[in-house]
TrEMBL record, chain A:
<protein>
    <submittedName>
        <fullName>Protocatechuate 3,4-dioxygenase alpha subunit</fullName>
    </submittedName>
</protein>
<comment type="similarity">
    <text>Belongs to the intradiol ring-cleavage dioxygenase family.</text>
</comment>
<keyword id="KW-0560">Oxidoreductase</keyword>
<feature type="domain" description="Intradiol ring-cleavage dioxygenases">
    <location>
        <begin position="68"/>
        <end position="196"/>
    </location>
</feature>
<dbReference type="GO" id="GO:0018578">
    <property type="term" value="F:protocatechuate 3,4-dioxygenase activity"/>
</dbReference>
<dbReference type="Pfam" id="PF00775">
    <property type="entry name" value="Dioxygenase_C"/>
</dbReference>
<dbReference type="InterPro" id="IPR015889">
    <property type="entry name" value="Intradiol_dOase_core"/>
</dbReference>
<feature type="compositionally biased region" description="Basic and acidic residues">
    <location>
        <begin position="10"/>
        <end position="20"/>
    </location>
</feature>
<keyword id="KW-0223">Dioxygenase</keyword>
UniProtKB/TrEMBL annotation, chain B:
<dbReference type="GO" id="GO:0018578">
    <property type="term" value="F:protocatechuate 3,4-dioxygenase activity"/>
</dbReference>
<dbReference type="InterPro" id="IPR015889">
    <property type="entry name" value="Intradiol_dOase_core"/>
</dbReference>
<dbReference type="InterPro" id="IPR000627">
    <property type="entry name" value="Intradiol_dOase_C"/>
</dbReference>
<feature type="domain" description="Intradiol ring-cleavage dioxygenases">
    <location>
        <begin position="88"/>
        <end position="116"/>
    </location>
</feature>
<dbReference type="InterPro" id="IPR012785">
    <property type="entry name" value="Protocat_dOase_b"/>
</dbReference>
<dbReference type="InterPro" id="IPR050770">
    <property type="entry name" value="Intradiol_RC_Dioxygenase"/>
</dbReference>
<dbReference type="Pfam" id="PF00775">
    <property type="entry name" value="Dioxygenase_C"/>
</dbReference>
<dbReference type="GO" id="GO:0008199">
    <property type="term" value="F:ferric iron binding"/>
</dbReference>
<keyword id="KW-0223">Dioxygenase</keyword>
Length: 218, 251
């Protein structure tokens, strides 16, 4: 007995692949995941300090922790002028390369006082995060990523955050093997590598210009 | 996380990947009509960054960031804020429809006259001694949030001649992964200022309605406060599929 063939369904025959969204009969089941559309981003505007200021915002690690460093830098626009009304957020692993997060498959960071997250306003264009130097982090494919910090930059004039990474100049060997840095030109890499300073490291962020920082699509 | 395995440090990890909305449905970083983007939005194409451990984790922030009273912006400095009292509520979901529980939601806004309590906002509208414009809440186990505030006023700005921002509330959310972080603005329905606002119009047309709350009479409290619902959707995670011999049929 042959299957009923609806005259309303084009190609309703043995070659019907039953995929919804084609001019053919569907199975009645979704054949891909149903997704809700995400909420669109917007700029933080000039008044972000009202909502996003924490007394301990800059402290990715508790003050006084052994090994604490300051990660600092200046954020500049396309004219080379400082961006005095923005915000930089940081996220990173601890010195053992582990994250203060339950999804770290090796277990959450056990470093006391380590939050791994810092948030700094940019008065005078300058951000400053109190933290620990991160360790190397597995790349998930059997190799390693060099020590790094993910940064998000928010400001008036940016309709979405922009994301970059900080690497460390004194990790030349690890940097040379890093899968992210390896995909960049030498000039691009230079925009991501922080220099040692008296109290930590320094990396300036250029939103535009000849030495525009490498930003990442995540 | 389910489906995540480890074979020791440096070993292979099955990590989730957070879906990325098509460019045509996301707010671009730059939008020429919003003049401040001109010198600030990066000009080069961003480099694709595969999601690894740093990107699939993120700060764990919750009740420790919230103080008593943070969910009611209408009571500050021992008195009541001026303006139209409103309840803003909704759910925080990921794009797979799963609630995001225990998520910190930070909000800030102008007062009823359209003025922010901020040193660089000095247009001639009154400050309100009983309104600071800061709120914080944490989503419950079903991803729900709710706070009470006053409806913010519109305010002028210098982007173009006679430019006015539509009334809006700023929202900041983390979710549970670096990739889910979003800062955005919630608008009110049918605002006549939408047409001339480049920040609203920077959102692709098909996505603009997602930035606009809906009035909810059922959640309007008699003799007290109007209700506005706004659901927020963060990027969801594609779980790495398990290797399997069957074709997905279930009995």
């Amino acid at each position: 007995m042959s299957e009923h063939v609806s005259p309303l369904v084009r190609d309703a025959d043995g070659t019907n692949d039953r995929r919804p969204g084609t001019p053919r009969r569907g199975s009645g089941f979704l054949d891909g995941p149903h997704r809700l559309p995400t909420t669109p981003s917007a700029t933080v505007g000039p008044y972000l300090a009202i909502g996003l200021t924490w007394p301990d915002g800059a402290d990715a690690v508790a003050p006084g922790t052994t090994g604490e460093i300051w990660l600092r830098g200046t954020v500049r626009d396309g004219n080379g002028d400082v961006v005095p009304d923005g915000m930089v957020e940081s996220w990173q692993a601890d010195p053992a390369g582990r994250f203060a997060h339950p999804d770290d498959p090796r277990g959450s960071s056990s470093t006391a006082g380590f939050r791994g997250f810092g948030r700094s306003a940019t008065p005078g264009g300058e951000y400053a995060i109190r933290t620990l130097k991160p360790g190397a982090v597995p790349d998930g494919e059997g190799g390693w990523q060099a020590p790094h910090v993910d940064l998000s930059v928010f400001a008036r004039g940016l309709l979405d955050r922009v994301v970059t990474r900080v690497y460390f100049a004194d990790e030349a060997e690890a940097n040379a093997a890093d899968p992210v840095l390896s995909g960049l030109t030498e000039q691009q890499r230079a925009t991501l590598v922080a220099r040692p300073t008296d109290d930590g490291y320094r990396l300036d962020i250029h939103l535009q210009g000849a030495d525009e920082t490498v930003f990442f699509a995540v | 996380m389910t489906g995540t395995t480890s074979s020791g440090d440096g070993g292979r990890l099955a990590l989730p990947r957070y879906v990325r909305e098509d460019a045509g449905a996301r707010t671009p970083v730059a939008f020429p009509d919003y003049r401040s983007t001109g010198l600030r939005a990066p000009l080069r194409t961003p480099v694709d960054l595969p999601h690894r451990l740093t990107e699939i984790t993120g700060p764990v922030l919750g009740e420790d960031r919230v103080a008593p009273g943070d969910a009611d912006l209408t009571l500050r400095a021992g008195g009541e804020a001026q303006g139209q009292r409103i309840n803003v509520f909704g759910r925080v979901l990921d794009s797979d429809g799963r609630p995001v529980p225990g998520a910190l939601v930070e909000v800030w806004q102008a007062n009823a006259a359209g003025r922010y309590r901020h040193v660089v906002d000095n247009w001639p509208a009154p400050l309100d001694p009983h309104f600071d414009g800061l709120g914080r809440v944490v989503t419950d186990e079903l991803g729900r949030y709710e706070f009470t505030t006053i409806k913010p006023g519109a305010y002028p700005w210098g982007n173009h001649h006679n430019a006015w921002r539509p009334a809006h509330i700023h929202f900041s959310l983390f979710g549970r992964a670096f990739t889910q972080r979003v800062v955005t603005q919630m608008y009110f329905p049918d605002d006549p200022l939408f047409g001339q606002d480049p920040i609203f119009n920077a959102i692709p047309p098909a996505a603009r309605h997602r930035a606009v709350a809906t009035f909810d009479l059922d959640r309007t409290q008699p003799d007290w406060a109007l209700g506005f619902r706004w659901d927020i959707v963060l990027r969801g995670a594609d779980q790495t599929p398990f290797e399997t011999d069957d074709d997905g049929d279930v009995a």
